[in-house]
Specification:
Length: 235
Amino acid sequence: MAEKENLHQGHRQRMIKKYLEHGIDCFEEHEVLEILLFSCYTRRNTNDIAHALLKRFHNLEGVFNADYDELLEVENVGPNAAAMLRFFKDFTKRYNHDSHCGIVLDSTQRMCEHCHRLLKDYTVEAAYVLLLDGAYSLINEFQISRGVTQRVDFDIKTIVTKAIRSQCSRVVLVHNHPHGVALPSADDVVTTRRAANALSSIGLELVDHIIVCEDDAYSMRNGHLLPDIWYNCEV
């Protein structure tokens, strides 16, 4: 038993040494998962678990997009490992958010591309708000709702409060239709008008409301909806 544990420990040390010397690109997908699971299984070989995850979800993207309960269905994946894999996905999203702050979204195409990256992997409906400065640079973005099945929930009071605190000049609303097409509903139009009116009352501009689906993003402004709101928009 001790001999087996020593062999296993040596394997982990070799894997970590390989990473430190050559980086992550030298690993196969199952090896990336294997290393990631080291922290959850201190005495167990994680190779078979990594292969089982990939067999179920096909690739790394599928593993990290899997729901907590789906991960638990994989043999030998316990609550800690399932939670860690979900945390890693959210950690990556937070890191990407921080690294994206300061990017310039001064065209509809750039806004749509950014919003598509932000929400394309969500399997439930979610809504975000983007806060921009006068030069259309991203100051901050935050999730305002998630998991609403019938319609998005944009809390206007929260949007206004965070916009004021950020000292932004412009706001973009974005939500997804994970199992549909990127076209606005009647509720989307009503919500957009309410947000535009509330922001206008404090001197801020609602630049757009973008709707994301798996392979597309739709700009309500470019779709000529609510032209009285966006008749003077420069983007």
